[in-house]
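Hey, quick one: can you model this chain's 3D structure?
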Amino acid sequence: MNWKTIFNPFERFDEKQLLLTGILAVILSIAVGYWTDTTFTSIYKISNVENPSFKIIAITTLLSFLAAIVILFILGRILNSKTRIIDIVNTVLISQLVLILFQCIGKISYIRLAGKNVINYESAPSGPFPFMDFLIMISMSFFSIITLVYSITLFYNGFKTATNIKKWQHIALFCVVSLISTLVCQVIINKII
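Sure thing. Here's the predicted structure for all 193 residues.
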């Protein structure tokens, strides 16, 4: 395995293997969402759910992934008529796999406590600065940024591989459509929950 495989598994692995991994990722994200009271309200957006039920978490997660798949497939067909649905499905599902870690982070009590301690210190600075709590917060921020960049890289590389886009105009269109669809999906799904 090399760097290219890590950042673009879509060129290395068979689409059926990627699809199976993606389906397992969806199942895992729903199960973890039920455990953590969170759900995907769009790709790249995980929200807390009040009074969660397994049904609501499953529906919102599936709808957010489905919306991204449909929109990317339409865009892919516009840019390249040979774009296959399985490649778009794999792109969306595999890119969201690493974000399941974000769902789990909220359940780690010392990370939540560290954030509260730093916020409390900022609002009323008394006593020694909570350096370890601050270090935990900075480490988690750094980890979150790296994870998010990796997921976006997978998302872009998967779409690029699926559609064979090369022109900068197509890449810019992909970025704009992805951003707008993510925001619209969040608004719509937030009304459901």
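One thing worth noting: The radius of gyration is 19 Å.
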